[in-house]
Amino acid sequence: MKKLIVFDLDGTLAESKSSLDTEMAALLSTLLGIVKVAVISGGAWPQFEKQVLANLPHDERLKNLSLLPTCGTQFYQFAADWNRIYSEDFTAEEKEKIIGSLQQVSDDSGFKLKKIWGEVIEDRGSQITFSALGQQAPIEEKKKWDVDFSKRKKMKERLDQLIPEFSVRLGGTTSIDVTKHGIDKAYGIRKLRDTLGIAIDKMIFIGDALFPGGNDYPAKEAGAPSIQVRDPNESKRVIEAIIACLDGARPNKSGQEQSP
User: Is 85 left (phi over 0), alpha (psi -120 to 50) or beta?
Assistant: First the structure.
């Protein structure tokens, strides 16, 4: 029986930079009443507050929820309030090199953009994120900019040459995430194992970027049984199936596990 369900956020639980919709919030609430849940995303902590926590009931079920912003380089757990367990931040010199490299590759890419919505390069402390159309770009614009990931894959190839000492991953619909090597969603999966005392093979990871180079792929490489989804709607159906299986496998009044 699985003991921890781990989710990516953007493109998996919600549309990019958007809040959980009513159906997803209800499904997650139900899931939290059955099993421990974690969310690992490239987004910073304020995004978790806005996208996830603002839409979930503030009750005892939150103790079953672990939140790992910036690709698992930060870890939050709930007691009376949310507490940060760790944060793997860059030095000032590291940030300067990463930001300079992202600016150079962006300038050299030749992609013609009619409009930018907000900040393109964001310092998230333990992660630097490049968002091609800006952090506040409309979802409909983001979805059509790099449908097959080809634009960002070319940028990643160049970044791998310029900053080989860092890990470069594709995230969301227009983003590139830069972290320290070994500090990615695999790191987050292992931190969940060590902090919660749950073996990796007792987890399920669900994400939309589980392909090589995608920012969900390290979770799969870490050994977590993984489910690839296309979008939040497919994630809902997966969550429904997990709820049905886990709820059916819980001990009955006689103490015996029910058949799922």
Answer: alpha
